[in-house]
Fold each of these.
Amino acid sequence: MSRITVIVDGVSYTDEVEPRTLLVHYLRETVGKTGTVVGCDTSNCGACTVHLDGTSVKSCNVLAVQADGHEVTTIEGLSENGELHPVQKAFHECHALQCGYCTPGMIMQACDVLKNNPNPSEQEIREGLEGNLCRCTGYHNIVKAVQQAAGELSSQAVSS
Amino acid sequence: MSSLSQRPADAVVGQAIPHESATLHVTGAALYTDDLVGRTAGVLHAWPVQSPHARATVTALRVEAAYDVGGVVRVLTAADVPGLNDAGVKGDEPLFPDEACYVGQAVCWVLGETLEAARVGAAAVEVDYAPLPAIITVREAIAADAFQGGQPTLARGDVESGLAAATTVFAGEIDIAGQEHFYLETHASIALVDEAGQVFVQSSTQHPSETQSIVAQVLARPSNAVTVQCLRMGGGFGGKEMQPHGLAAVAALGATLTGRPVRIRLNRTQDMTMTGKRHGFHAQWRVGFDADARLVALDATLTSDGGWSLDLSEPVLARALCHIDNAYWIPDVRVNGRIARTNKTSQTAFRGFGGPQGMLVIEDILGRCAPLLGIDPAELRRRNFYVEGQATPYGQRVRHPERLVHAWDDLAARADLGRRREEVAVFNAEHPHAKRGLAITPVKFGISFNFTTFNQAGALVHVYTDGSVLINHGGTEMGQGLHTKMLQVAATRLGLPLERVRLAPTRTDKVPNTSATAASSGADLNGGAVKHACEQITGRLAEVAASGLGIDPSQVTFADGLVAGGGDSLTWEQVVALAYAQRVQLWASGFYRTEGLQWDSTAMQGSPFKYFAYGVAACEVEVDGFTGAYRTLRVDIVHDVGDSLSPLVDIGQIEGGFVQGAGWLTLEDLRWDESDGPTRGRLATQSASTYKLPSLSEMPEVFTVSLLEHAHEDGVVYGSKAVGEPPLMLAFSVREALRQAAAAFGPDGCAVHLATPATPEAVWWAIESARSQPVEASLPHRAEAAGVTIDSGDPSAQDEHEPDQPEPDAPPIAPESEQLADSGSPR
């Protein structure tokens, strides 16, 4: 067993984990962050996407011990003071979800795309989310939501 | 207009609102079945021991070594089953089998304190197998005469004389691929037993009542001792209509034996190797056209790949036969159906339920034959549409066929098809190594369960003394927005703002004896039941309000939270308080059954559908001549949802259904090991790394969806139509566009066969076939290149594609084979 200390959604956790424990299992089973889900087990679908030190990772493809001393943000830590993050708000308003299972990962990845490229073209959004699968929506509204969020975020940036 | 379909002004139904759980989804708060593990104390985890053989007798099962593994609590075997060792409704799905019938089938289960303990324990179980010969492909099953279940024939008129009178008769075959559901949430169940022995199963199931029934059957308990709840599913698509039952039963068995909660969650490999998929089909056909390229006769034999057990294969086959006409009038028809028994997963419901496979047969025929008839495929399709007064081969009058024409013409205008066809021709003339195709295809899809009995639903509506409302209904939520629509229906009928109505999870102890949330019928059936319950409540409240307002109850209206009449009004809350004080019942159970249906599944005749849903799609693709790789440039859709209950939800269903259909037809390539090697029968595509799902890279560059206007559907809840399945078949347009683009590499008028799925590889072979065709080939040669033979008219000449005809003693689909598990003895 290895002792790790990880900040998850702003709270520090210290736990003994088996060295081969995947980050997603640590988050779900030890920390209780069930908002991050397991879809494919093979790092194809992106449903388990979280931020590790602010950058998106597929948490089924990262060991929990690799997060030792680092900061993880999950979908449950994205909203601030009860206010939905603009990407969350846009996914809600644009009906960019159906069964919702891919939604947390899709939102976390979209945040990462917009952080690196605040004004992406439609093509850049598609490429940025290519590693996240959705079986319900056909993606159309997901792209629209990211476009709406980009607009919202850039207008926030202008006004602040 | 019926009172069921009549919609008040400013109704909550029809408003474009987000999904009712959207806030929970975007914050990660929404719970799926497996999220409950951490909220449940003392959970045991289950792991299957899976057969490595496609078919083998289990000659010995030694479980002792598993108990030597730390953390293993219990091994579940057939000897533990107190009731029926069967996970299905037909008695052919042993839960703990003594003969393994496919690679991956669970022969026993190990329960452990941790998933890892269960996994290691399962690896320690020793199983002796005596391998038996296995059948893997449909063609092998046909050769071996290995069929299961009924072999129905759907017929009208005299197909032989119809073909004899035809100007041209073509014959051919097609192999239609299956499809993995790949719901993002794999199968999951958690079972608990309470202090009084009540079994409570949380399951990711589209059919809680049947899950309940199977759990009860396995445990030898009455249904009232088993409760099943489904919070929501992370996708279902039909894959959770029957497949959850056995898993729930194993969890429940484990819970009753250990007294502890038991969780089963399949990992992706287990899910893909253990659970059923869309049926692949093989079809042989002969088709006749008259001199005007009108369909005059169709003779076909469809063989579905049923896998190891019947499951839902019979009704899937029935729907395939009932949809072989798609949108087209065919006077003389004979379609035979049979179900191959193969040593694979038990193929099951998948969005469209056989309809897509049946429709693909005729769409493939039209696409392949249009060049041989010398007619534009769009014109060939349009010319053969049903018109008012005509009936389907099973005898149901086609209502509103003009809607398809409206949708077709509307789409042609919206998508500017005339101009774009010319542009495609110019592009193709200018580009020797890239070609474009632009195709338009229709959808007509029958709505209702074929089996009339299933077309019923229940609901429970509670009004509390503070005026707040809680609704329950028998349908399950898998992302399709059913709960959203049910909230809108209740708010509309009660005249309340949406916020006053809340919905509780689907449970068998709230609404019993429910049908599967399937056949696109969830909103039609449960909406009718919710509305019925609300009407009883407003009926009683109208009496209360009428006496308060001094008017007749018939004058009372419910709108915007006010109960009004005679120029005066009371608030909803005031009336509810008055009613409670007067001891008037404030809750009601609702019931709905679809009127006007009748179906004889043995004769394959009747009017099984309440109505038809229509849609039209146009798709333009560009194909690369060197590789067969392609891009979808543009997709336009006009689809008929009646008067939409919830437009955002409906458009989302159309977009998602189309993309899922395009996945089935172009990307998703299930491969099974068909070799004679030791891994014969193994699913070679066991994960998303080898099974290609639609991703953002395959999205059409332009994608528009419009709802058909003036589409009110009389006799259905608030004038709406079902939307779950029909849009999947809009994706035929992609396949036909690819076919046309591939053909454009060949001489004018060349016909090509395109395999399913039309992967780039398959498209490349179609291009090769087109390129190799000489410019001035004879019609028989051109046909042959497309895998089509031209009937000589000589009845003594046996055509290689002649559809097999059933033996005289072939069993029909008997109605009793469609009965629910506990309403008749299993066959």
Note: The first strand of chain A starts at residue 2 and ends at 8.
Amino acid sequence: MTASAAGEAPESESGVSGWALMLRNVNKAFEGVQALEDVSFSVRIGEIHCLAGENGCGKSTLIKIVTGVYSPDSGTEIEVFGERHASITPAQARTLGISVIWQDLALFPHMTVAENIAFDESVGLIPKFFSQGSSYRRAEKALNRLRVDLDLSASLNSLPIAKRQIVAIARALHANAKLIFMDEPTSSLTQSETDNLLRIVKTLSTEGVSVVFVSHRLAEVIEISSRLTVLRNGRLVGVYDTSDMTQTRLGSLMTGQELVSEVSARDCSGNPPVLEIEGLSRSGEYSDVSLKVRSGEIVGVIGLIGAGRTELAHSLIGMTAPDSGSLRLNGRRISPRSVRDAISAGIAYVSEDRLTLGLIQQQSISANVVITVLSKILGLMGLISPKRQGSLVSKWIDELAIQIGHPDHAVSTLSGGNQQRVVLAKWLTTSPRLLILDSPTVGVDVGARAGIFRIARKLADEGIAILLISDEVHEVHYNSDRVLHMRNGRIVWEHDPASASLSQLEARVYA
Amino acid sequence: MNEAVAALKRRVGPETLALAGFLACLVVAFSAFSPRFLSVANFNSMAFQLPVLGLLTLAMLAPILSGGLNLAIIFTANMSGLTLAWVLIQAGGTEAGVAAFFVGCVAAVAVGATAGGLMGLVVAYTGAHPILVSLAMMIFLRGLGEFLTRGGDISGFPEFVGRIGHGSLLGIPVPLLVFGAVAFGWHVMLKYSRHGFSVYMIGSNIRASEYSGLPTARTLTLIYTLSGVLCAIAGILMVSRFNSVRVGHGEALLLVTVLACFLGGVDPFGGFGRVAPVAVALVILQVLSSGLNLLGANQHLSTAVWGLFLILVMVLRHMLSRARIFLKKRKEI
């Protein structure tokens, strides 16, 4: 793969003020393993640039070199606003105007908005008198530059994530940042919050602040940035203009595999229905939902966050009770009151929140797989048989090709894609009739996503009914047999991927 | 040889091995300084002292594993002991028969289970913090006990009751037998039963456990109930060892049980910890206190040494885990 014409800046331009950051031949090895090899990376002043690549490709290492957390190996050239540096210390990075907004934001939850924004005034060798009035004024100035209105005296932990992010940006601006790195900034935002953030980022860019976006979401990467740099396995794949970039192409560049997006929809109307929902309502969450999922069918439910899709799933697994309506599974009326009820009825639920609900991160892979089927691994005197547990676990590890070190290792040691396979294993052990996949690719690398959907299709072929809930339109379009669009708690449209196009669905969902 | 060590490590766990190694050092050191340390008399005295603390520690262990704590263990044991005492006195005091003792034990266990079960229900269904719930239960039981006994001692039990606390069977002290049996049962329950599995999972992440279909409320209720039962057994042993009951007896042991748990490698935030290393930790504490006692040290000094020792262990553990992370990183990168 070669860098395109939009790639490395020609030598003659270096030192000219058009570049905020120019890195050449960045090398960084940790104990003999090359984390970055001859990577070049440059950002124009006022540019919105995207740094793309799968987990472990070297994105974070690169950011940490620019901000002085790591010092690069010899041969690396760093130029910030035309000035050459052999390496950068964290303090230097700050005075040079380089700032990073990490995913966890690193703010102070118990301090006010103003205190957070003006925080850097209060640190230093010599304690300064911290005047509330002036810090308020300066915090307000930073927010005005972003054209947002926030209550300065509100405590940070009273704000939603999206607003906290704005506080973090304002804090960077207040510290005179001219080059801001944002690490996965949209991963926990709703669509409208994301739009708002993208608008703010554009405002920054018109003011001459450069922004480097690090994001998994291919669609918004292409939408917002003007150029993008792709890394893979610590090497530069290339630098590209986003004007002629597609999601599919970017996905292949990141993974090094041809990712084909083909509509996989098929007609399952002849199969017997597994799940039948009739007029299901729960006040404040969803209303009058009726749908059918047939054996072997993958039904996508698309909706923005807050559309009621996860809430509907929670009622299917007995976490909440619907106010009215009926549920049938294989023709039998059910009303699950607990997850246990749902499991014995044949319903399995892969939660959208793998970190806190889907898996018990600290516990072993083995324990996480058998947690749903303890009664199947009992031996002598009704006690858990380690032998049965072991063979059940290794069966599913083989079946789903999960890459692990040892079944006794903590689940948290696995990559997102492998963790999601463990979740699938844990639910498939229950031999479900209906599998609910709620945003199954959150935090999963592009390459591993295809693998998850391959498994889903295989399960459907074995006769399982699958309800695929997602807020990524292309995901449901390409991987479902039928797509239901949910908005404000109601199903408002049925989309047939075989006959209607992706853009038609996009237009409806984002309307 | 190396393979044998590795196999042993897998079965017993590095935590237990490290503690056992430390215990061996302690025994060697004390034997070198005091000729009486390696005597039958000393071992007997340790074997009679250890079980009460041991049972209370196991009663503390399970709630900690579930992500909670049971601060009411001592007063639950006292109340159970009081129940047994009451039954014995109703049946004639020193004249009471074996049947009365048996009934008294059943009643004591019932009281312990009720106290624990109540805490468990509140923890499970209100989501109140176990520290608060068990603290409230502790204060309630203490007040109730002091009200009933007017703060005094109750004694005058039949002679055979004392023999349980001081007697031996096949050369092994009866209290040690009781502790051994309970510890084994506890080990099996935690490691191999569905209930034990749920306790660990809930201790790590109760919401994820619920989403996986584990009966979280039932598990919590049951684990506190069982903790109460263990307290009752400890209370019965205390009656037979001291031949009297007083509310507040053994109060100083409360925090020692927490100490023994942490010394045995139990995660203070729940989800991780095993019976075997905790049992070894108990022996270490007992050896420390008996050994210092034999060397003529003040009893309060040995309490101070326990505290210092725990701090030392925490620091060592921290350094070890840092070293492990460092080594792992070197390997990975």
Note: The radius of gyration of chain B is 21 Å.
